[in-house]
Amino acid sequence: MSGQVTEPEQRAGGGRRLVRAWHGFRAALWRDLFVMVREVPRVLAQTVVQPFFMLLVMGHVLIQIGYVREDYAAILLPGILALTTFLGALQNTALGLVFDFSVTRELEDRLLLPAPLYTVALAKMAFGALRGVLSGVVIVPIGFLVLDLWWTPGQMLAALPLVVLGACCGAAAGLWLGTAVESRNIAVWFAIAVTPLTFTGAIQFPWPMLSDTLWFQMLCALNPLTYLSESLRAVTVPAAPHIPLPIGLTVLVFSVVVAGALGIRGFRARALG
Fold first, then answer.
1. What is the DSSP letter of 54?
2. Domain membership flag for residue 23
3. Residue 163 domain-assigned (yes or no)
4. Distance CA 105, CA 34 (A)
5. Residue limits of the ABC transmembrane type-2 domain (predicted)?
6. Of the ranges 157-161, 188-192, 247-251, 259-263, which one carries the lowest mean pLDDT score?
7. pTM of the entire structure?
8. Residue 246 burial (CB count, 10 A)
9. Continuous segment of H or E residues that includes residue 114
């Protein structure tokens, strides 16, 4: 019958949709990257200052005065890297969305792209993840200098994909937060979210060593940042107690999928609302 769509035509239509989605994603991401090049110092100042002082005080000063053991620096650096990467991606994604939706209205232009809405949401998530990776890459040499520590090339190569995955997890959480919270309340909710994430993310301590404080260990287990910190310790300080790497990777991937799906749904609701 002439009204029926053949299988080759269906495949061709699906291919065109994928091409439009890719072009929309690339256009939205490229615009953000172009703006970021001019704002790199501000971006780094937002995400690196706090981790730098945590490294200085907790990893250098406390060791110098004998308050913690000398090997504590090796435990701390993976946690600080996880914190910088995750929160850098979360902060830039969430606050960027709020700013675009309520102040500049730039997203209204991007929503006119001949591409599905989810491509714009994915572009914002990818941009936030890139900022998180940038922050993490910058904090590592700072940590080496402050802590007088060094990782082998093999350890650095093993940590890099974990940094990328952690940045994607933070960006997905930022997409969810940035679309779920009203613009006027974002500062309050951001402060409420960041503080618990920071102190229950196993940044300053290995998670298995909390076995004598079971209630706090279970609380930390609910935080995806814990699994990023522990996964980075697994590849940089394998002799230290840590959550097995396969478990950490599984939880991080699951968190990206769930938070990303919720964030895309929230983005669609805000865009069409």
1. H
2. no
3. yes
4. 18
5. 42-270
6. 188-192
7. 0.84
8. 10
9. none
